[in-house]
What we know:
By secondary structure, the protein is mainly alpha-helical. It has helices at about 1-10, 15-30, 30-80, 80-100, 100-115, 120-135, 140-154.
Amino acid sequence: MARKKEKDIIRQPDILMQAYEWAMMYIRENTRQCIYGLAALCIVAAAVASYFIYSHYQDRKIQYQLSRGIMAMDVYAQTRSKAEIAKAEDIFQKIAAHAGGKPRYISKLYLANINMIEGKREDALKMYRDVSKNSSNDTLTYLANQAIQNLEKK
């Protein structure tokens, strides 16, 4: 009895073969729609790939600008040149205005430090609070909170 059921099951067509035959039949009957669908899929894939490539390029550009600003701050720390601090401030303001996420808040921390150097304590405190409230990065939030505590003690 069990052998008879096994033979009946074996004689039934395979589900994968049925799906393959159905798909081939559908493609033969609807060739034009399948070609249009495939073309649309290729266009969507190209658009998504282009977005990711552009996004990666923008991230690298922002990272480069951020490194230029940090190097200008290092040069200022060694030479105390007003030109270097102005250059760093300009770079960090551009990043803070156009970037998002972590680079934006890193640049705001540096801008707050520049404000402290220039004696603009209230502007620096405002920027530190902005980073503390809005940054999702724990390290940046910690640094901003420490700076706020040090400013409030003075």
